[in-house]
Amino acid sequence: MTHYGAIEAGGTKFVLAVGDDQFNLLEKLSIPTRKPEETLEEVVAFFKEHPIDALGLGSFGPIDLNKDSETYGWITNTPKLAWQMFDVVGYLEKALKVPVIPTTDVNAACYGEYRFGVAKGKKSAVYYTVGTGIGAGAINQGQFISGLSHPEMGHMKVVPHPDDDFQGACPFHGNCLEGMASGPAIEKRTGKKGDQLSVDDPTWDFVSDYLAQAIYNTALMLDPEVIIFGGGVMKQTHVLNKVRTLVTQYMNGYKELPALTDYIKLASLNDNQGVLGCFALANDYLENKKVLESKVN
Ligand code: ADP
Ligand code: ZN
Questions:
Q1: d(CA 250, CA 220)
Q2: Which of 141, 151, 177, 216 is the most buried (most CB within 10 A)?
Q3: According to its UniProt record, which cofactors does this protein need (predicted)?
Q4: Ligand 1 atom 24, closest CA
Q5: Does residue 185 fall inside a structural domain?
Q6: Which of 105, 138, 156 is the last residue of a domain?
């Protein structure tokens, strides 16, 4: 039987998983992210114990996803210095001797929702994670939207809320979307983690405002059929209604959208959207290979 592997590679943890050909989750393990070799040795040991036929990798970035590039599959200029210019795909393919299909963590989650979750049956979707960082993955007609490598929507500029004097937490841009609305931005602004803030803390008005600006921009620029939110900060589900109200205000009737309860949704796969997206990438690769081989033979 075919087995698919998944790695959700994050800055704090790596989630490793194995699924069968029906996409049932058979094994799942979370390990802390350390230096590349140290982390990947444990990854390799896991997949040697639970063999797979192909591996989907949803990685923190930036990761070079341009197949024509000499550094395809490398983590590039990340602030996590030990991982800078590290060939993660090459390392895994060499050690495991299976094809590795890389994408961003948010693309993988977007694809999970597209194949199995709230975006199933749609032709296009955008998935935002609001957690340690903010990022978004986008799919149109079954393809990830990319060009030079992959989008970086989490770092879009947002207009500061008039009552928000926080200068922002992004080391590159200060008050970009991630700098203003990520989990660490909330913590830096208030001295408390998001889950310690009361529901009526004004911080939620600011966070909702920045996320609404992102949705407004996304709706206008990419025109997806659905926009999905995941990540730790979105466990504050009250934020979602504020975001919907503000999107309506900002759009001001200009672009017709579906009912916002259908258009702006929470992730639906119990935090397995990334893993399932990785399984689906592995499945696509193997199916495609089968088709190609049948044409050759
Ligand atoms: P990661 O981005 O590392 O994959 P998460 O998506 O869980 O992980 O995001 C972690 C961030 O989300 C942390 O900054 C944390 O403080 C914040 N967070 C986690 N749970 C909640 C919650 N219930 N309410 C608000 N913020 C939360
Ligand atoms: Zn930024």
A1: 11
A2: 177
A3: Mg(2+)
A4: 195
A5: yes
A6: 105
CA distance 297 to 279: 27
Whether the CB of 194 sits within 6 Å of ligand 1: yes
Number of structural domains (the chain) is 2
Provide the residues around ligand 2 (an ion) whose CB is within 5 A: 155, 170, 172-173, 176
Residue 172's CATH number:
3.30.420.40
Q: Which of 93, 87, 92 is nearest to 75 (CA)?
A: 87
Question: In this structure, are 254 and 126 located in the same domain?
Answer: yes
Structural domain contains residue 285: no
Q: Which two tokens stand for residue 57?
A: 């990798």
Residues 84 and 123 in one domain: no
Query: 233-259 pLDDT, tens per residue?
Result: 999 999 999 999 999 999 999 999 999
DSSP 176: B
CB distance 135 to ligand 1 below 6 Å: no
Q: Which residue CA neighbors atom 13 of ligand 1 most closely? A: 183
Query: pLDDT tens across 112-171, in order?
Result: 999 999 999 999 999 999 999 999 999 999 999 998 888 999 999 999 999 999 999 999
C-beta of 131 in contact with ligand 1 (< 6 A): yes
Residues near 198 by Cβ (< 8 Å), separated by ≥ 6? none
Residues 136 and 167 sit within 8 Å (Cβ to Cβ): no
Same domain (yes/no): 136, 248:
yes
Domain that holds residue 21: 3-105
Q: Check pocket membership of 233 for ligand 1, CB cut-off 6 A.
A: yes
Longest dimension (CA), the chain: 67
